[in-house]
């Protein structure tokens, strides 16, 4: 195996991708609080791109609007795979993680609203504690829970996928400004062409698939869809979700794998090795000397309470309640302490929580407090989840035969 093949294989590992994400965030935090902090801010604000396409953007915007689109494409693609072939194909099997995701979204949002109910300038961040960072959470599970049953990872991934789609809906519904119907119509036409080439049958799509390198068709089309979506006023990452949901998940005669699977194999290392670390590097650099009001801010306590307490109560409580009032049951390989550990893992907000923070606040102090709270809550949830998962891991290693 070549060095490049070994590197891409490593980047598909949950532990490696999560470590890179954490490492980039640490570098950003240290850099922003070092004597070289001016260089960090200069890098974030470095602006480039074609102005005639309204894409003369600072580097941090390219990271959040551009590179993060790849992350959301993977989210949409994974959701399509789950609906077509995975847990979400059978509602009876998926009901517990789906309810866990929904209650794990609603309860943290309610906690934030309760804390900031009389602070109208802060209430716009209600969606910040809703999201679970799948890459970060799965990495913690992979490192700490090596003897835990595989259905636990499936439960977490299903929960995180539904959780991410809730975040997508929130971004599309509440963070769209200055909608341009004409450019939005162009994006929709581009998506229709994308879907036709993926799923349509006929001389043209079949000839394209058979006779032209795929990237020569899809890369320019995806770039056009992204550009039109960005210009329409809808957050550009929505283009990634839409294209992911349009991927074909079943191979046709003569194909070794479906386009969905090939895209996953090709793009996941780029997402893990470039897109998410670059976003973390551009977003997690918080100057700690600018957080004087951190512990007096209701934004801080709304996010901490939502991510650490609200996620735990929502995920565990929702799962337990639905199992009690319906015929839904836990996978035989799982027990309630395992779900409690997943509830703690759900408090790792990070990527999407940082993105929603940037979309929710324009005032510097509010944004700094929100990002600081997301980082603190994610770190705290990671430690608590690692302790709980470690205890479950030791118990299973001593008392349960590996699955």
UniProtKB/TrEMBL annotation:
Q: Which terms are listed as keywords in the entry?
A: Antiport, Cell membrane, Ion transport, Membrane, Sodium, Sodium transport, Transmembrane, Transmembrane helix, Transport
One record GO biological process: regulation of pH
One cellular component (GO) term of this entry: plasma membrane
Q: Taxonomically, which superkingdom?
A: Bacteria
Membrane topology is: Multi-pass membrane protein
Q: Which GO terms describe its molecular function?
A: sodium:proton antiporter activity
- Main subcellular localisation: membrane
Keyword Transferase present in the record's keywords: the answer is: no
**PANTHER family per record:** NA(+)_H(+) ANTIPORTER NHAA, SODIUM ION/PROTON ANTIPORTER NHAA-RELATED
Functionally, this protein is described as follows: Na(+)/H(+) antiporter that extrudes sodium in exchange for external protons.
Report the NCBIfam families cross-referenced here: NhaA
The record ties this protein, via HAMAP family, to:
NhaA
This protein's name: Na(+)/H(+) antiporter NhaA
């Amino acid at each position: 195996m070549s060095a490049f093949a070994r590197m891409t294989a490593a980047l598909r590992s949950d532990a490696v991708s999560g470590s890179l994400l954490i490492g980039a965030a640490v570098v950003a935090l240290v850099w922003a609080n070092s004597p070289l902090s001016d260089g960090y801010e200069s890098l974030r604000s470095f602006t480039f791109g074609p102005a005639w396409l309204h894409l003369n953007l600072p580097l941090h915007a390219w990271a959040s609007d551009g590179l993060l689109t790849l992350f959301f494409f993977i989210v949409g693609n994974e959701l399509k795979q789950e609906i077509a072939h995975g847990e979400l194909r059978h509602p009876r099997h998926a009901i517990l993680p789906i309810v866990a995701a929904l209650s794990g979204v609603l309860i943290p949002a309610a906690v934030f609203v309760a804390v900031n109910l009389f602070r109208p300038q802060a209430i716009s961040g209600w969606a910040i504690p809703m999201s679970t960072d799948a890459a970060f959470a799965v990495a913690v599970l992979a490192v700490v829970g090596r003897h835990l049953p595989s259905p636990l990872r499936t439960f977490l991934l299903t929960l995180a996928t539904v959780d991410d789609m809730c975040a997508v809906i929130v971004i599309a519904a509440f963070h769209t400004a200055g909608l341009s119907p004409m450019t939005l119509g162009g994006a929709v036409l581009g998506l229709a062409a994308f879907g036709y080439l993926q799923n349509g049958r006929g001389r043209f799509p079949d000839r394209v698939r058979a006779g032209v390198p795929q990237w020569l068709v899809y890369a320019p089309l995806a770039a056009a869809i992204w550009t039109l979506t960005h210009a329409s006023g809808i957050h550009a990452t929505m283009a990634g979700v839409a294209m992911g949901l349009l991927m074909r998940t079943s191979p046709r005669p003569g194909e070794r794998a479906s386009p969905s699977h090939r895209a996953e194999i090709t793009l996941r290392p780029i997402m893990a090795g470039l897109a998410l670390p670059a976003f973390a590097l551009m977003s997690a650099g918080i100057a700690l000397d600018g957080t004087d009001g951190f512990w007096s801010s209701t934004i801080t306590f709304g996010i901490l309470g939502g991510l650490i307490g609200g996620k735990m109560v929502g995920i565990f409580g929702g799962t337990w309640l639905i199992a009690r009032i319906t015929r839904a049951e836990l996978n035989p390989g799982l027990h309630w302490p395992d779900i409690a550990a997943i509830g703690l893992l759900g408090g790792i907000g990070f990527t999407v929580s940082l993105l929603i923070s940037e979309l929710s606040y324009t005032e510097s102090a509010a944004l700094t407090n929100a990002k600081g709270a997301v980082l603190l809550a994610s770190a705290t949830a990671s430690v608590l989840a690692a302790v709980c998962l470690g205890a479950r891991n030791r118990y299973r290693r001593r008392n349960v035969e590996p699955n």
